[in-house]
Amino acid sequence: MRFTPGRLLAPALFLATGLLVVTGGAAGQPAKDKEPGKEKKDKDKGPKGGPEKGAKELRKAFDGITEIAQTAPAGKDAARLLEHAKAFYRAALTAHPDDPRRAGELALAVNDAVRGLEHLRRSSFQPVAGVPEPPLDRDGPPAPKDGPKGKGAPPPPKDGPKGRDNAPAERGPWSPSLDALTALQDQLAGTDAPPKGAGRDFFETAKSAYRQARTAYETGDYRKAAELARAADAWLRVNEHLARAEWDGAGGPPAAPEPKGKGAPPLPPIKD
C-alpha cells in the first residue's frame, strides 16, 4: 500500500484541532464567583487589631474595675484613682467602635490603673506563718536575709537617672525590689509631671508610692517595697495611654442600662 503525505497530515491536523479546543475551553472558562455572602462575611471580620480587639480590651477593663472594686485599697488616693479609671472606661465605651484607637488606649489606661491598685493592695498583705518565700533561682538555695557575706542589702538607688551604676552584683531577697526601684527611679527622673487633672493625680500618687517603697526597702520589707514600686510603675504608664488617647478629662455619662427585651433563652432541659 502506498502512503502519501496527505494521508498522514489529515489525522495530525485533526489531533491538533482537538487539543486547541480542549485548551481553549479550560483557559477560557470564567473564574468561579465567590459564594453569596462570603465577601460581606470577610469584610465584617475587620482589620487585625480593630474593633474585635478593642472589645476584648474593654471586657478586660470592665472585669478589672469590677474585681478591684470589691476589695479596693483603703485611702483617698486609691479611691480617686479608681474613680478616674471608671471615667476612662466610660469614655472608652463611648468611643467604641467608631474610634477604636482612642477606645483601645483608654481601655489600656484602665488596665494599668487597676494593675497599680492591685499591687497597692498586695503591698499590705502579711506573710503566712510557716510558708517561707521561694528562692530567687529555681535550683538555688534561699539567699541569706542579712545580705551578701553578712554585710546587709545594698542601699536603694540614689536620686536621679541611673542611680545604681556601681551596685554590687550579689543577688538576694532584696533584688526584685531593688531592680523595681531602680527602674522606677530612672522613669521618674525622665518624666514631667502633667499640669493638672487625672494625669497629675496618677503622677503624684506614683511618686508617693515610690517614697513609701524606699522606706519599706530600708526597713527590710522587700516584698512590700517591690509591690509599691510596681504600683507606681503601672500608674506612670497610665499617662502614656492618656496622651495617645488625647484625654481631655471628659469621661461621659454612665452607660444607660440595656433595654428590656424578651430576656435570655431558657436553659436546656436536664437529662436524666
Question: What descriptive keywords fit this protein?
Answer:
8 helices; 272 residues; DUF4398 domain-containing protein; signal
How would you explain this protein's 3D organization?
This is DUF4398 domain-containing protein. It comes from Gemmata obscuriglobus. Residues 26-55, 124-201, 246-272 are annotated as: Disordered. Residues 1-26 form the signal peptide. The chain is built from eight helices and no strands. The chain is mostly helical and 272 residues long. The chain has a domain at 48-124 and 153-244. Helix 4 (76-95) packs across helix 7 (197-218).
| SS summary, helix count | 8
Number of strands: 0
> What is the end-to-end distance?
90 Å
Mean pLDDT: 78
Query: Low-confidence segments, ≥5 residues, pLDDT <50?
Result: 13-31, 38-48, 146-150
Into which percentage range does the β-strand content fall? under 5%
The proportion of residues forming helix, as a percent range, comes to 55-70%
Helices, strands, pairings?
Blueprint: H1 5-28, H2 38-44, H3 51-70, H4 76-95, H5 100-122, H6 175-189, H7 197-218, H8 222-244
Summarize the structure in short.
With 272 residues, the protein is mainly alpha-helical.
